[in-house]
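Sample A.
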Amino acid sequence: MPALKPLRFVGDARRRLDAFSAHAKQQAGYQLYRVQTGRPPADFKPMPSIGPGVEELRVWDSENRTYRVIYTARLMDAVYVLHAFRKTSQRTEMRDIELARRRLKELLSGGRP
């Protein structure tokens, strides 16, 4: 069994993920566990507009609401969740992208959650 990378949350990402519906939270948790063990999540896309190695995990709940978790697993010490939110439009809002960018920049400059 592969080693389990620690999961670390930046800013209020943990609180936001905890606000997901129960089904979406369970799905996101399982997919993040896959990432922690070095496996890809079931549904994700790269987010180069935020930074290299940043990906967006996509989950839906039983009510067909859409949720996103932006993370990076490229750092050696942990999987970092930069942002988590409920998506309400077709495109990811610029404010969500900017928030994840700021958090990644802070993380890479030595600021740890």
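Sample B, a different protein:
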Amino acid sequence: MTGTQHVFNQIQSSDSGEYYCEAQNEMGTDRSRTINMDVKYGPKNTSVSVSPSGEIVEGSSVTLTCSSDANPPVDKYTWYFQNKTFLNGFGQMYNISNFKSKDNGHYHCEAWNGRGSRNSTALMIILQEKQTSGIIVVVLVVILWLFCFMWFRKSTGESPS
């Protein structure tokens, strides 16, 4: 850039950094001292992640983490379940130590700093149903088959080997 001044028409967070100017004429070149420009902004790109990712099993521990880009850094997080604030959800991480079906639903967080706040999009967490019904059916079919086989052998006069 050339000229005696630089105007930022729309300052952005990416404009943060070190700046200096340089003056040059036929006698030589001189450089100003470096200044640091620190652009302050409210939270943005706020999101919720869940660990472990994937299948949530009843009784397992689930940790939700709220992340947000902000300058100054986020100083307050608020957690919401089904769009209602929950009393013990005020840190960057929220832990559910014994996940049950009553914990199924939408979770989101709100990040705050001195410049404003931003909500994350909602994250749906659903407890995986235990797959015991399929196992029970298989076991019952095997028992029924064995019973029928034994009954058939007994009724035809054959003794089981």
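Observation for Sample B: The CA atoms of residues 80 and 125 lie 13 Å apart.
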